[in-house]
Amino acid sequence: MPKINAGRLLSELRRFAQFGAYETGVHRPTFSREDMDSRRWLALQYEAVGLQAHIDGVGNVFGTPLSKRRSLLIGSHAESENHAGWLDGALGVVYGLEIARSFAETPDCAGLPIAPVAWADEEGHYLSLLGSRSFIGDIDEAEIDRAVNIRNGLPLREALQAAGLVGLPRSLLEPERYVGYLEAHIEQGDALEASGNRIGVVTSIVGIWQYSIIFRGVQNHAGTTRMAIRKDAGLAAAMLAMNIADRFPTVAGPSSVWTTGRISLEPGAPSIIPGKAEVLFQFRDSEMAVLERLDLVLREVVEETVIKTGCRAEIERTETGRPWHMDSAFQEAIESAAMRHAPGAHVRMPSGASHDAQVVGRKLRAAMLFVPSIGGISHHWTENTHDADLVLGCQVLADAAETILRGEYR
To answer: Does 194 share its domain with 279?
Structure first.
């Protein structure tokens, strides 16, 4: 079995966090100077392990083994959310690097090819899951042409040019070259910590369905318009949120979550009855049947709100991500390794967040491993994980990688 170098792993994780260091986390948005510096650093590390390294036209960083055997992709995304945590994405990227190193240093594993990878823009500064979608051929040039930064409006094409990526080809998956894909990530929630478990074997990744719901009422004077004749779009939006809170628990699955992320009112003045309200709403679950059930109830609640308030409503589903189930044999490989290194402290669990594994998994066998997030915190610079759990997770993933490459789980 390969034995990872714990001190080196922790050192490299902290070295990677220096790219865009912010408070105790990082600020490394996609294609920023800090992000591109981190990717070029990764390429140098891949080369030092004896891999052929290259950065492709959307910023993905690949370490390609020279072996003619099929290799195992291991990685995650290199960029961060704004002013966020030091491990989100980076954990899986550095795990891939350390596992490639430990295999190269272990005589009976040296012939088992590990292909570390760092995907671009999983976080969606321009296009969610851009790098992995590009890799499997799920994105065309027209979509890249249309994409802009969600915060500052910078076109993706301009960002690619500034990053020095224009003219580089986008790498496309050749399935016959790979056994599959493994990804490690912090949990981003508190389920592992609350249950006393140290390793999560991911069973599935949720589908995310997102909506824009617009209520149109009658804008009028707030002091002179009788309550009996009002058609208040703001009231309709608030009523919708409360009715969802009442109805969804009756049809949700055990891991369903839902969020009213924004309610915006027009014109938004204290003395004017809102004539328009827009609600941005999202729900997530790992089962398609549950997602469809929640969709049906949402539409019923919207219609009930229209009847009660006299407002008109428009509902548009703006995102329809399908849930994805991880490869069962790869799950078994991770679980078997967890039983050796963390007996009684591992659990199978769904992922409540999107990850590149759900994209790559459409073309290759794929699985994921979680380590605990202290306090369940993520997407904030206070995000952290105990060093012992960081080391344990990498060792478990390395053992699973060896098992998979030896063909013991088919």
So the answer is: no
- Residues 104-130 as b/e (b if ≥16 CB within 10 A, e otherwise) read bebeebeebbbbbbbbbbbbebbbbbb
Give the closest residue to 43 by CA, choosing from 59, 22, 28: 59
Domain boundary among 280, 304, 320: 320
**Which tens digit of pLDDT belongs to each residue from 122-149?**
999 999 999 999 999 999 999 999 999 9
Check residue 343 and give its pLDDT: 96
Check whether residue 142 and residue 266 sit in a common domain.
Answer: no
Peptide bond between residue 254 and the one before it cis (omega within 30 degrees of 0): no
**240/275 same-domain check:** yes
> What is d(CA 221, CA 218) in angstroms, rounded to the nearest whole number?
10
The 10 Å Cβ neighbour count of residue 60 is 25
Q: What single letter denotes the amino acid at residue 157? A: R
pLDDT of residue 408: 67
CB count within 10 Å of CB 131 equals 28
Is residue 357 domain-resident? yes
E strand intervals along 130-194 = 178-186
For position 298, which CATH number holds?
3.30.70.360
Q: 76 pairs with which residues across the strands?
A: 118
